[in-house]
Structures are given as structure tokens and as C-alpha cells.
Amino acid sequence: MHRIGPFLSVVKMKTQDLILLFSKVETLPVDVNDVLKCLRDNGHDDDIEFIGVDLDPEILQGQIKIFWSHNGVYGEPTRCANIYYHRGHESDWQRFIACKELLHLLDSELAHTKSQQDIDLLAEKIGLPPEMQDPTSDGFQANVDRVAEWRAAAILLPLASRNLLHAAYKNGSINASDIARLADIPRRYVGLVMSDAWPGVHEILTTPPENV
Q: b or e along 63-84 (b: 16 or more beta carbons within 10 Å of the residue's beta carbon)?
């Protein structure tokens, strides 16, 4: 079993570092609390709370609200995040949404929805079926949310676990539903991770933006 430990550096962890770290994990399912602990061990001291609420999953399945809290007049401000997920979902979707929204903490400021109008627009875009979405016109926030789904899939079904299962998946000994149950993630993301193209996608997700 591969265990996750903190980096020696005090520099805040970036998304590609987090995916690389979890890529070595061979035991499923990955606990989202381990992802949160890893971030805290590696420079992210945010005050984060996961909150189950009633949402319309056909429109919006999760949302992150980032704000600053001041402890007294002279106290240092603390970045806080409320991560909302639809409490009516099964655990696979709750875990996936919580992980995806958590990764937005590592995104640039431009990726954070700030107003109700922004949130409504994002919900409208994400709620559209894939054939009705256009990455070139949807806007930066919608595209960031899409990439966050791939990043969450890379963490919750790590590359090492995927590679261990790949041969059995290819010969039909196990199927996507079996892997979804093992990883406790929505089945819709298993096909992507188990595809022959995934190692290349994973490499892109773990390459610093300036090197892409």
C-alpha cells in the first residue's frame, strides 16, 4: 500500500503535484479526507467545510464559496471555503463532487465564481449535454470546471490503481460498473480513466502549465 505524506517544501501544493502524489496509490477507494489532509500538510491552511444541501442535480451538483474571515482587528485573515454538494446523491457522486470542488482552491482567482449571475451562468453551461457545449465559447469558468472533473477522476481513480485493473478491464474480467464500485466514483468517469488515451491525458494534467 502506498501512503501519502507531506512534501518537505513549505510552498503551497499545486494541482499537478497533488495528482502526481495520489497517482502512486494502489488501494481503493481514495478517501476525500485524505486529499484534504494532504493539502493541509502541504501549505494550504484554509478553513474548509463540506456541506450537504438540496440542489437540483440536473442543473448544479456542487459549488464552492470562498471567503475571508478576520480573527480580530489585528489578526491575520483566514481563507475559508464552504463546499456544497447535493445531499440526495449516493456516496459516489458526493465524493466526486466534493473532490472536484476542493480542487478549485488550487485554481487561479479567475476561476472562482463570485456573483450569483456568474453561478447561474456556470450552472446553465454545466447543465447542458456535451454535444451542446462549446469549449471555445463557454468561457473560462465552465472550462475550468470541466478540467476539474478530469482532475478529480485522476485523484479518485489513481493511475497506479488504474494500471493494476487495466488488463482485467480490457479482457472483460471486470467492467466499468465493477471499477466504479471499487473506486466509489460515478461510472461515467470510469470509461475515460480506463481508456488507452488516459495516460496521455494524465501526463497533461500533471505537467506545469508553462510546460504544456
A: bbbbeeeeeeeeeeeeeebbbb
Give per-residue pLDDT as tens, 164-173: 999 999 999 9
Cα–Cα separations (whole angstroms), residue 87 to 65, 70, 140, 153: 17, 30, 28, 20
Contacts of 166 (CB under 8 A, 6+ apart): 194
Task: List, in order, residues 6 or more apart from 122 with CB less than 8 Å away.
Answer: 60, 113, 141, 142, 145
Domain extent listing, the chain: 15-211
Cβ–Cβ under 8 Å, residues 194 and 179: yes
pTM of the predicted model, to two decimals? 0.75
